[in-house]
Each structure stands twice: as C-alpha cells, then as structure tokens.
Amino acid sequence: MATPQATIERVPPAPAGPDGERRDIVRAARTVLAREGWRHCTAEATAAEAGVEPEVVGRHFPDHEQLLLSVLLDSSVSVAATLAAVAESYLAEITDLRQDLIALGRAWLAPLEAFREHFAIVRHISAEVTSLPVEAVEKWQATGPRQARRELARRLRQVAARGLLEITDADQAAERFILLVPSSVVQRSFHGALPLVRHEEDALIADGVDDFIRLYGPTTSR
To answer: What is the pTM of this model?
Structure first.
C-alpha cells in the first residue's frame, strides 16, 4: 500500500521586490508564532524575525492578527489535506481490517514530523485558547481538525458499505477512531514535541484499534 506524500511546510526562496518581502514576512510570522505563541507574535517580533522595520510589516499587513490567522489556517488546511490523502490511501482497499487500521493509525501520525511548526503552533494555542480570538479558534477547528475528521468519516462510511464495519454514525465513528488511536500518541508526545519510542507507539495504536474494532467491527470479529 502506497504511503501518500505529505506536504511539507516549506516556503520557496523569496523573489526580489515587494512579493518577496511579503513572503518573508509571512514566513517570519509563522516562525515566531511557532516559537512564541499567538500573544507574543507581535508585529515587532515578526519584523525582527524578517529583518525589516515594523512599518514594513504594517504596510503589507495592516491587521497583524489577520496575518496570524491566515498563517494558522494555511497550515491547518495543509495538514487536513494530508490526512485526507492518508484516509483515502489506507481505507481504499481493506485486506486485513485490524492490520489496515493499525497502518492507518500510524500514517495519521506522520504530520507530526512533516509539519513540526504547525504542531508547535497548536501546542501554544492549546495553552492560550482562553485568550485567543473566538474567530481564530473556530476557523482553525473548521479548516483543520473537523475537516480531517469529515474526510475520515466519508472513508469509514465506504468501508461500512462493504460490510467490513458496522457503523450507523460515521462522523461519530471517525471521532472515536481519532480519540482511540492516534490521539493516544499525540497526547502522550505533546503533539510530537517529545516523541515516544516505536514499541510504545505501536502498543498504543494496536490497543486503540482493538477498542475501535470492538465498537464497530463486524459482529463476527468482536
């Protein structure tokens, strides 16, 4: 089974002129946001990271909060698209339900490595959520976690249609798969900041898949 290619967070070298300057500022904002969090990613901090004066940042992005929101949403969309590709690849053909779900669970964790800056931002957001703009949190959830869950639900619904799972609510099943399987590793590793050893990850994923199959597997497999 082919593993989908993750979209790595990488900004191409900036061209000369205003477009390149703007791209440098976006890249700097993302770096500061990942390192310092939302509250400390000021226009001044972004300017210092980009090597420009604060007024240059203001000229390109008069509303710095909207710049941070666009950085967060662009990153979330990339992660959600990668996870959608993972779900499509690993659930398109099932040969061994348990082993294929275990492979899906492991592949679902690949963005922790491929999108390190994104998950550094997520760690900060988790700590700052009560002081963040409600709009920012809601849009992040809608374009990132909820979108990934919807795509997983769509694929699980197709698996159920083939008689390999017994699911009445695919959205709930997708949420439970994420909670039972990859989230156990995500939480213990603090979104990849402190990676677990491979055998510990394998055990958590396998245990989560077994719990998922007990809930949603065909009656004969329970």
So the answer is: 0.85
